[in-house]
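User: Round two. Same drill as before: sequence, then structure, for each protein.

Assistant: Same drill it is. First protein:
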Amino acid sequence: MRWEQLPGLLAHHRVAARLLDAEPGQLGETLLPCLIDTHDGQPLVLLAIDGQESRLLSPVTGGELRMPLEQLRSLQRGRVLVAHPAGQDDWRAAGYARAASGHWFRDLVGRQWRRFAEVALASLLAALLAVASALFVMQVYDRVLPTRADGTLWALALGVFIAIGLEFLLRALRSVVIEQGGKRLDLALSRSLFQQAISLRLASRPGSTGAFASQMRDFEIVREFFTASTLGACGDLPFSLLFLCLIAFIGGPVALVPLAAIVLIVLPSLLCQPLIARLAREGMREAAVRNALLLESVDHLETLKTNRGEGRALATWQRLSASQSARGLRSRNLNAWIASWTTAAMQLAYVASVIAGVYLVFAGELTAGALIACSLLTSRALAPFAQVSQLLARWQQVRVAFEGLDELMQRPVERPEGRRFARLASVDGHYRLESVCWRYDAQSVPVLALDRLEIRPGQRWVLLGGNGSGKSTLLRLLAGLFDPASGSLRLDDRELAQVDPVDRRRHIGYMPQDIALFQGTLRDNLLLGGGDSGDDRLVAALDMAGLGDFVRRHPLGLDLPIAGNQSLSGGQRQSVGLARLILQDPPVVLMDEPTAALDQNTENRVIRTLEPWLEGRTLVLATHKRALLAWAEYALVLQQGQRALDGPLQEVLSATASAARRDGARQEATTA
């Protein structure tokens, strides 16, 4: 990891950090302790400075040592990292004198204020230098030509050449500054959006992956808006007033012409904004639907083919494409009309300024040189407004894209701003549920409603019930992936929602029904959470999961390339999921149909090998397979999201068998 990435990473964990260009001896006590990067790659924590000696802590060894400041300076490489816990609101102050909460995008842009200040300064200097060419022409026509003073001509020409060169350099430097700032904004914005996407609560994630991907891709529209052309036009806009004032100073009433032209240039774009907004909104919605259809068709191509759905999918695609193409054509025609109108308005303004100036020349109130200077300054004054007119045509598309990104950033996340979670160093695995209810949204009926349930440490429970009875939902609640809509869900006498998500993931191992594989190698997919487990440990976990022989026989072994879920069979993917769980080594194990796709021999081997591994762990298992009941001691039967029966496994099985016999006898009697 790069040193510059540490402040952003620490900010995610509620630690305010910054990098300083300073030597250890220059740091005050308020900045200690701090982290110092060294040439050997082993960072040191500077605890204190006692005269010419430093007191250090090595994060690698954990030991404390003393070192002369001169030696520490020779070891130092680059900047030092100072950090402190981020400030927290105190309830005693309530809302008194509280600063207004920032907006995610405004905060990111605000960090580039130095760049914007540099752009504004460069724009001001470039605008001042741009006046030189107009003044040059005025002086040539009014003073050089009547007197044939070629010496004055070359003196003026030298000055204007210098001004043009400086203006060129300033505008080139301004573009570089804007692009550098845009790059930083691009990186910060993309990081914030992706971090938000992977931090979403499962209950608040978007329903369609394709539409969500299209929404994320709209980030490109917002990013491209903040480029040199856009910010350059905005930077030049305030200085158009300078040109207008100069026109008024030189030509007097001639300044009314560019003022009227500004209205003619900008007004059509403003009047067309509602139509442009509607076209942009509808077009982007259809683009999202098209993208969703494309991803769904490719991901489920086998289902599409076996059910002869290609024709229907193609017809839907053509309908969406035709509608989007028609709206796109209408939008492009409108933008082309606005661009043509802007060009015509600028030409008319130039001609009108010449005509108005000619009458002033006839009246003796203006010289010929001043007339030409005013016409040149008119073009300069209107150029930024012409660019703004084009930007207004794009603004609605940017606005719609930004609304989609803003909606994403407002979705609930696992780690809300200002929330401090409880840390758990260890977990016994004691669950207690009371009046727990969960639903998809506030208006829907409860998917799960449990009046009570207690799972003691080390107990092994199996969840039984038909499809849609709430088994998977209960497992997600126990894993902390869902929060109850009401009721109490406690782990070791602490509300599970209070526990830091990091500790939930570390202490609670959850294996879902569908095992997802990611682009990379088999080793990468086993170590999704990072770490440096050796190959022996990985292969041992695969042996327990029933995939070890396959890996040993394959020429690439753990370097087997994985390209999504199509690279391995369903049973092999489940073995990878089991191996991930084994490598995590959690005290609480939650499994949702862990052997549903395994063949009988592999399933029996997995049951035998995992039996000793599960010893002493809290286990909650959802299954329809009778063979997995060998792991369980207790059972919970769910019907329509509610507890129908629970208790020791054999008692529950006997009760359900008796109930099944009674139902069968009742049906036979009814049939007879």
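Second protein:
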Amino acid sequence: MSNNFKTSTMRFLNLYVFLIIIQITFFACDSSKTSDKNLENPSISIADLKKGFKNPEIQYRPETWFHLNGNNISKEGLTLDLEAIKEAGLQGIHLFNKAGRPFPNVKPIEILSPEWEDMIRHAADECKRLGLKFTMQNCPGWSMTGGPWVPVEEAQREVVETVYRVEGGKTFNEVLQLDSLYHTPDYNYKDIQLLAFPTPKDDDLAPLNPSKIETNNSLVPWQDIFNPNSKIIVTRTTTRLDKPLEYYRNHGISKVDEVNTWVKTTFDKPVTLRTIKFPQLRHIIMGTQYPRIDLAIKVEALLNGKLMEVATVNLPDANWNDRRKHVTLAIPETTSNTFVFTFEGNHAIAPEFIRLSSSAKLHNHEAKAAKVLRRLEKNVQYDYAENTIIKANTIINLTDKMTSNGRLTWEVPEGNWTIVRFGHINMRLTNKPAVPEATGWESSKLDKIAIENHLRNGMIGNLIKDGGPIGDGKLHGLLIDSWESHVPTWTMNSEDMFKEFEQRRGYSMKTYLPATMGYIVESTEVTTKFLRDLRHTMDEVFIDNFFKHFATVAHDMGAEVYTEGAGGEVLPIDPCAIMALATSP
């Protein structure tokens, strides 16, 4: 059997057993309302159930994944594999075209070329001849909805913030500089809003750097980890100090002779601690214990000569693809020159930075702002001092005072001010794993037009056109496979997310944008409510503009919809709502 063939049957066998159990349960539940005569003659007998289980009808048989590996495709191989699938008693295939290594003495087929289309036509025709259903992943690779036909303007977007500090009582007339990368075509930066507010107390301070560190675990490079000036190198899979630390990376912060690791940090003078920041969770957990993370940090402070517990905060449970957002843990505002951190629990972690900060931020705000899927830790609520909170009526919208090239002209009121330039960029994520000629931007998941253009103007639209390789009713289904494209946070058009929010929640979100950065706006209660409304809105927009519209376009093409789970796994939305839109979840 060739490398084209890959089966996965357990899911379908489980479904068949589930259907049998449902039938048996139905009869059992209904029996109290029926006569003995009906019990003697049920509509389906146990013998029929046994027979159906051993030799299920075709509609209950599994379908199989069918991966074309790289450019290694031949009509002869396709026919042999499909005939083997038919002989095995399966009812259909889900065709993928993924990246793969070259095979010796095999002529490579350029993906998306006329020669490749002829191979797809052959596979679809053979499925029709053999009575197999032909379903296709909607793009090259198995993740997710993208390809070289997706323009950068229709790619997945995420919010970025650039922060500026200015002194009041004078005229500000400068260009608000952005990260130089944002000016490149791939990032495709667009402005959202420009807001200013009085700088909350201690928000402009640098991270705290202890002058002395004591610990029961000297194998951890604490000095480097706590030093905000340490050089950090960030890749897709790691956040690392720029030095060899293999022992630490293999062992992490773990128990020492069955005793929890603790570290005592001392400062030259009293400092106020409000938040502790860690790298992305997938970059610090050891092994495969995600999504459940059994680790809490107990924070103690030296107060009036005694070591007192301030708080114990959990690292929030995460997801397997939590690689893009830091983790902010909040504690009650505490002033001391000595803090002790004890790492409690059964899991080790290996963070290569820990930032101690005087800035007041909402606990776990990255998850609460729907930027990443993590346990929300709703029970962690603190009262914040008034001078650390942004009052909504002090937030000034400066958007109309900034030119298209970023020059702001503003008569700054007295005091210290924070200016935030909110924008959105292409997340620079691509469909994968696909060969280079079939790789392009992931389409936006928050805009109907993006997914419609992806389906109608991309690979599927080209294949399904009249006379096309899978046209004329050959296509049974379209598949949305693995969601590995992280969490988009904005629409293609800067104003569209504002419109979605206001239409669904009944008020404007513009004033509350600083809350998406963790700032407390008005009060903890108001901020928490806004972020709950934001998550609710994001949930609905993902469902309506991506999953539901994908199904609408697919059905218009005559195709059923198959989808893998994403909500509750990597995406902060309702998983049941996704499954409800699929013909076959």
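The longest strand covers residues 261-278.

User: Perfect.
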